[in-house]
Amino acid sequence: MTDHVSSALYVYTKETEPLIKRLLANSFGATITPVAIDDLVQNPQERLVGTSHVVVSGTLDVIKQILQLAVEYGFSVGIVPGETQKDLIKSYRLPRNFNAALDLALRRDAQVMDLILCNEKVLLFKGALGRVPLIDAPGDVSRFALLVPALKKFFGLKLLSFDFTTAGGQKIRTAASGCMILQRHVGSLASRLISHDSSFTDEMVSLVIAAPRSVVDYLKFLAWTLFNRSAAHKQLPGAIGYIKSPRIHITSEIDHDVFIDGVRATHTPLTCRTLPGAVRINIGPDFKEENKRVRPAGEKIDIDHLPRGKELLKARKKQKIPFFSYASEARFRDLFAALREDARINMSYMVLMVLSTMLATVGLYLNSASVVIGAMLLAPLMAPIVSLAMGLLRTDVNLSKNSAIKIMGGILIALGAAAVITLMFPHKPITQEMQARLNPTLLDLAVAITAGVAGAYTKSFKEILQSLAGVAIAVALVPPLAVAGIGIGRWDFHFFNQAFLLFSTNLVGIILASAFTFRMLGYSAAVRGKRGIGVAALFLALITIPLYLSYDRIVEKRAIEREWKNERFLVNGKYLIIQKARLSRRGDKEVIFVDILARDQLTRADLTVFKQKIQRNFTRKLVIRARTIYIP
Amino acid sequence: MVMKRNLSIALLLTAVIWLNGCEQKSVVQPSGKTIKIGIIAPFTGADRAKGNEGLKGIKTGMQLTPYLQNGDTLELVVEDDRGDPEQSLKALKKLAEADKVSAVLTLSGSEPVLAMASIADDYKTPILALVATHPNITRNNQFVSQFSFDNDFQGAVAALYVRDELLIDRVAVFMNPDSTYSSHLGDEFSSKFESIGGQIADTIFLSRDADDYEGMLKRVRTKNPELLYLPIEAGNVIRIIKDAGKMGWAPQIMGSDGLLSVVLIKHKDKSRLLDGLLATDLYAYEAPLTSYGEKATPEIKGKPTTYAALGVEGYALLVDAMNRCNPSADRSCINNMIRSTVDFEGIMGKISIGPNGKAARPLFINAIHGGKMKYIVKVY
Fold first, then answer.
1. How far is B124 from chain A (nearest CA, A)?
2. What percentage of chain A exceeds 90 in pLDDT?
3. What's the total number of domains in chain A?
4. Measured in whole angstroms, how far is the alpha carbon of residue B58 from the centre of its chain?
5. Parent domain of A33
6. Closest CA–CA distance from residue B165 to any residue of chain A (Å)
7. What CATH architecture is B34-148+287-361?
8. Is the Cα dihedral B193, B195, B201, B207 positive or negative?
9. Nearest CA in chain A to B287
């Protein structure tokens, strides 16, 4: 028995008619009967009864017509593709060379395959409705060629309501920009996403749903696409859903045109169903190996990333997709449970606050950085602040209220504990560790913002939670509070004011940065108010003013101190070198402390001239404090 | 809603009024009267850079303040003295008698100004010497005022800087015996340096026609000086550095006022060769500017030099003195006002001129680094 069929009908079109001679002269011993497609369609019964194999060469429409007839008459099909039919060649692994293609087309071992019909139209590779940016992009283009149209398509992207009903009766209501029905289409990103789970013989219709809920979501998907193009992936990226069922019925809030194999073929409502093992087609041998008949599995529904419930409402309300993602609480159940726990005030929190403040206060008096760092690590303030950020972002009144109470309680405990310790101390020195917390600037706000981002980020991912200790050190919440408490104990309003400004800077900075980070990460509520974040932003704006002024003062101070190191004075013939200068503010006065190098003994008269020269040449009104060091 | 709108309008009006207030300047109406100011400077000869740069500065000052406060227009009458004292005298005579200028600004060096000083009282015309630093130009006359610091101050500061900051013990001094400026400054430096425990290892008198630089340097080198103090012309300084380099010798070198400016104008191609060269000066490129300096320096065409800056400042100080006189062209009054200038805001600091005609102003010590002038210290 030979490998090739003994006879076959050759169906041709006007364009493929010249191939008849070559088919008739085939070297595989097959007897070829040519028939024009028009003749066949007019009288299929006459032509097809008793025909066991048909070779076809023509457009996709013609091939689909033959496949539909194959379902009815049971013949196997060999395809001789045209050079331009790349999808066909790729999907069925057909040879490009005519003789090789004819060899394959005349073989007798055709592959049994499913046939998908969408609104009774044959779907060979893919169907698309709505906007399916990126996932319909060809897989063999450069990253740049992928990026440009992807960014273009992004404009005007909108999620619409869709209902999907599976053969098993599952009803799924979601919002998506569009979807693709796939029949082992090769080359697009969508086909790669499901390649591990797709077969010509699985008796299923595969549906890939694109639902980027935000610009950030879309950009993340784009980045994923750009850097994960080479291999198949078992896990679906965010913004993508997947349904696999023998039959899927799709309805949408507005009618969509449905493009089947690149041609506008029908519109929604759409029903796609599979005809299991309906046709036998001669496909490439390697492809045949990949598509060995598999035992049909059950329906598969992977829609975790698609909008649901309140999210769906939000998606439908928006004219365009929002910049940041949003999520219902159900989506991140564990995180929200942890945040609610963090927002609850309890005894261990209060004890830790007292202990950390005591440690910080003693460390500040000892001028010991290591003790102060220990206090930072012990302090439990960061957790309720992060919870408050989430509460404000999601306008979750309970979460916000509980967190705020916990923070306020912590602040009062810290201020009280530090004040009491200060009152108990007989000697109250102002150490460098304290002074370091009396001049908050915009740089401190930058630290708070960065720490806030890091705090929210670490809180969002369990596997990096241990980094939260580093965040606590970076932002140092308790030491400024302890210094403010010391200010109360000293009854020094300026002391309290400056240290509390630093704490407020950290607090507001962390809240806003954490809220922003949570928003970036997609934790924003589906239905969200803006008042909470607005209030925090207002506080930030207000706090920025004194910080800016303080920063400006520090920059100016440094510039003055630097300039002063270049100043020299010739006083009554004596040369005075300013070796070091330090500008300090004492109330409303500016005091410049200078170290003067001099060769000769300075008299009272010399110092008077020195002072006069400063007063005459410098516009700032400075109080001068000089220390003379004599050059030997 | 109406209240909101009214509030917006009120705020807008306030802003407009406030901005107008900020922008509003007292506009001087020209009176039609012209007051002449004489300029005596070397526009030809070896010192022409001083004259040309200085005049550029004066013209910049004029551009900033073309009128006196009473609306009188100022007009410049320019005379070239080629740096020659005889020509300076002729120019002064012409300006005072024929042109009837109300004041003279001079960019000439110490010798021409010393010549003018000897007869200044005869013309009773105030002369403001912008560049000359010889201390004697204000001596025995009432009408010459010195705008720069004098060489007593300059020499003493240089000596103190070398001794106390560079911690140098032995210095060799080169001076030009034909130049009263050079010889006086060299002497002043030497005496101050010795008075504070330093040692003058050698003193070289470098006449204008001297050409055996190598021989002189060989002699000096045997005395092991750590620094050469060179209050001499830029060309000679460059020659000494070159010849010392040929001998494989690179001592620390310090020059005097205007040196770095001349080097950067006339010998720009050699500025890299002069890396590390120190000099006392009236200005520094990187030192902080006063508010007047911030307004004036961008107006100077090209890179501001010491002489251009002196021109701008000198003109401004003269205008300030004239503004305090009534009538503003009164020579005697202008002279008195110049000599009672207190804390006039210059480009880089305050300038005062006392009744003796001496200026008190900061001095800078600069150095050339990477072909550029770098500011090291400012001395009050």
1. 31
2. 29
3. 4
4. 12
5. 7-109
6. 8
7. 3-Layer(aba) Sandwich (3.40)
8. positive
9. A563
